[in-house]
Amino acid sequence: MALSNTQYDAIMHEYEERRSLHRQELEERQRYVYDNIPGYKDLEDEAASASVRFAKRLLSGERLDRTVLKKELAELAKQKLLLLTEAGFSSDYLDMGYTCQACKDTGYIGNEKCHCFKQKIIDTLYDKSNLRTLTKSANFKLLTDKYYSGEDLDRFHHAVSSAEDFIKNFNSDYQNLFIYGTVGTGKSFLSICVANELLKKGNSVIYFSSSGLFELLAENSFDYRNKQELRNIYDDIYGCELLIIDDLGTERTNNFVTTELFSLVNERDIRKKSTIITTNLTLEEIQNFYSDRIFSRITSNYRFLKLSGQDIRNLKRIAK
Fold first, then answer.
1. Structural domain for 30, as ranges
2. Considering 62, 86, 110, which residue would you say is the last residue of a domain?
């Protein structure tokens, strides 16, 4: 799926606003330092004057050794840093800040789109679930084991530990997670926790409800005018670094869904792109509802995490 010109311009405008905000913040810090550290502004002015004097001499025809200027500027920079740190400021207090250090808030590294730009495209085109909002209420800081006990608690701790390993080794070890179990036991919550951590590390993540994913594919598959659009969708869904399919089994299962699910699982495995699937279905139901080929791919290539216990949503409602 391709961005429209309006969507692209909106993203680039957001980057422009980021840079403007960080420039304003830096200017405010500079003014504060000038007002509160005697001599700092004088050293900065002297560095500028030294550069201007050197340039004028070069333009007048003098043959000068540039290393002399470099040494003079380095000494002035050393004195400025000393004043800054002695006043209790960090050494990088007057460095330009960036939301994304990799591209310095331009969206590009050379001619290539930065990982942050790629995720913005994903957020714009696919995030009907509003993943960024979901991560504010579903993250590891809010994860708790107070709703589990006994064997359910053991399963919860095992699932969380496995999810943490998944995150830790994500960029070096290809792996997939299949999180299954009874309704309301935290499967979607845990998958969003994982998504949040990987987003913070700069990985591209697409999050879909199962019904939403297959509806999107069906809408474009059966409209001959959308062939290029469909190719773009497949490129994104097959190629993103993490795909989360939430609540597998809630879609209307038919031959189209079965075919598409197999292609998705198979193609992402070929490309070594990680996938997380959550479902309320049992393993026996997965085998019965979908093809043996799908069941075989999942059992061969996914790590199984089972969550069980009472419906946490009901427990929270009762508590209220």
1. 5-86
2. 86
Which pLDDT tens digit goes with each residue over 184-242?
999 999 999 999 999 988 888 999 999 999 998 998 887 766 777 788 888 889 999 99
Task: Give how far Cα 173 sits from Cα of 165, 168, 200, 272, 274, Å.
Answer: 10, 9, 18, 9, 9
What is the spatial distance between Cα 221 and Cα 230, in angstroms, rounded to a whole number? 7
Query: How many other C-beta atoms can be found within 10 angstroms of the C-beta atom of residue 258?
Result: 15
Does 160 lie in the same domain as 278?
A: yes
> How many domains are there within the chain?
2
pTM: 0.74
Which of 27, 62, 86 is a domain's end point? 86
> Whose CA is closest to 258, among 218, 312, 294?
294
Q: For residue 38, what pLDDT band results from cuts at 50, 70 and 90?
A: very high
pLDDT of residue 149: 95
Verify that 144 and 269 share a domain, yes or no: yes
Percent of the chain with pLDDT over 70: 97
17 burial class (0-12, 13-18, 19+ CB within 10 angstroms)?
exposed
Cα gap 105→98, rounded to integer Å = 6
CA–CA–CA angle 74, 77, 82 (5° rounding): 125
Q: Do 146 and 37 lie in a common domain?
A: no
Nearest to 100 by CA among 202, 241, 206: 202
Rg from Cα positions in the chain: 27
Closest CA to 247 of 191, 306, 292, 166: 191
In-domain check, residue 9:
yes
End-to-end CA gap in the chain: 43
Summarize pLDDT for 238-263 with one digit per residue, the tens. Answer: 999 999 999 999 998 899 999 999 99
Residue 116 to residue 1: CA distance in whole angstroms:
17
Residue 25 scores a pLDDT above 70: yes
Quote the tokens at residue 268: 């992402």
